[in-house]
């Protein structure tokens, strides 16, 4: 996965007041067969922060080159930015493309796969330890208060999970407050998982 890192955020805001509506994100992992999946990442950034990030990158008009390197950028009328990244293929291909060790696919019986994501590795992915000084921590706290990262696993049906299953039984998700994830606080499991039956 390629989520925007906290180090980039703090560097961009080094001389700025904290801005509201910074960033929400969703990681959606859909099992498409016993050996393949589609991984979608959607990051939504508030207008003020996106404008500052874009200016920091030296752009006259927002083309998302620095923010959405590996995805499709959409700018809304209010100036907010939505970056959508989609990767699809065999598990081995996804592992090579993502270039991170976090998301794992493990056979769990006939036509079943255990999808898992260790939260410690997710914290490393977003650079949770990069803002160590008091000013950086205060900036992060102000920016991410009330902001969330949603992790969702889906397929034909959910067999077992430590996440919140949907009413239709086809998906399970966990909404993670960004500050709990960044600070390692809150009632979070070490690993999110779901045993999913493939379509």
TrEMBL record:
Print the keywords alphabetically: Signal
Q: Which organism is it from?
A: Devosia oryzisoli
Superkingdom assignment: Bacteria
In terms of PROSITE patterns, this protein maps to: PROKAR_LIPOPROTEIN (PS51257)
Q: What is this protein called?
A: Lipoprotein
Q: Which residues form the signal peptide?
A: 1-16
């Amino acid at each position: 996965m390629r989520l925007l890192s906290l180090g980039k955020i703090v560097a961009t805001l080094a001389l700025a007041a904290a801005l509201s509506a910074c960033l929400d994100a969703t990681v959606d992992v859909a099992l498409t067969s016993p050996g393949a999946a589609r991984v979608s990442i959607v990051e939504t950034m508030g207008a003020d922060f996106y404008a500052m990030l874009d200016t920091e990158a030296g752009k006259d008009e927002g083309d998302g080159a620095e923010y959405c390197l590996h995805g499709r950028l959409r700018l809304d009328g209010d100036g907010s930015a939505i970056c959508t990244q989609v990767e699809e293929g065999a598990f081995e291909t996804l592992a090579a493309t993502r270039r991170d060790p976090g998301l794992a696919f493990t056979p769990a019986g006939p036509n079943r796969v255990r999808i898992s994501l260790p939260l410690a590795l997710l914290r490393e992915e977003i650079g949770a330890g990069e803002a160590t000084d008091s000013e950086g921590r205060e900036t992060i706290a102000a920016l991410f208060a009330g902001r969330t990262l949603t992790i969702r696993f889906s397929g034909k049906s959910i067999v077992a999970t430590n996440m919140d299953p949907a009413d239709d039984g086809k998906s399970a998700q966990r909404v993670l407050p960004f500050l709990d994830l960044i600070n390692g606080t809150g009632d979070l499991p070490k690993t999110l998982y779901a045993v999913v039956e493939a379509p």
